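I had to read the description of the data format several times before I understood it. For illustration, here is how one protein appears when written out as sequence plus structure tokens:
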Amino acid sequence: MPLGSLDRHPPPFFRQGPSALSKLLVCSALAFFLMVADARFKLMQPVRTVIATALYPLQWLAMRPIAAVQSASAYFAAQGAAQDARDQAQSLQISQSQRANQVDQLILENERLRKLMELRDRVKFNATAAQVIYDAADPYTRKVVIDKGMVQHIAMGSPVVDELGVVGQVTRVYPLVSEVTLLTDRDHAIPVLNTRTGARGVAFGDVTTHVDAMELRYMAANADVMEGDLLTTSGVDGVYPPGLRVARVEKVERRVDAVFARIYCVPTAMVSGTRHVMVLEPLTVELPARPVPDSRATPGRNGVVK
């Protein structure tokens, strides 16, 4: 086949249309025309309205998961805030309740301290204020430990009182603390005076009836003792100053076949629940010393000292 007879044009499959530059120019011009026409004459406004109306249900459905997540997060946030507010309110209520209880306790302690100060003014002996720290370790005794000792010049045998009466007696003294034996201890005895009759006696600790109890022993069966009689310190023992309240007669039992009456008493002081007490000096501090016998005196034949 001669070369001049060949078709030098590309087949239809490889034929190309307008060039890319021509298409860009035409599209740009069309876009510019549409923008100017829309800006001037609002030609595309109906089209936008129709498209927006048609797409609104799809937009609403697409936003539902997001709205549900936002609602759930807001619900849980509100629940957490409410829980925190409730916890804060409960803690505030508990703290206010504790403060109210502390206020009541402080008011009661202030009243007792005022009465102790008044008692200190009435008592002519030196007195030291002390606080009960704890009960003694021995469960079979009625003893407490106070926060004053040798450093504060606490002496052995010092009376311990509160605003209502005698609490007990110092039986052991340590450098910083002291041990006080209460009136209701079974080994404790205190001379008392019946303020109604003037009769003297000795009251002992007694735990047979109840914990805080005493017994006025060795009183005759026909002794003039009645329920409600007030017993005070007599001062004859040289330890307790006279006139301090000790106990009040609770019950009197008289038996025909018994020589002595059974007289049960209740301490006037708060033996078990007291916290603030006053430690007095023993009465022996104010008493004159005993006279020293003369060793040079010799008895005569009839026992008369010459």
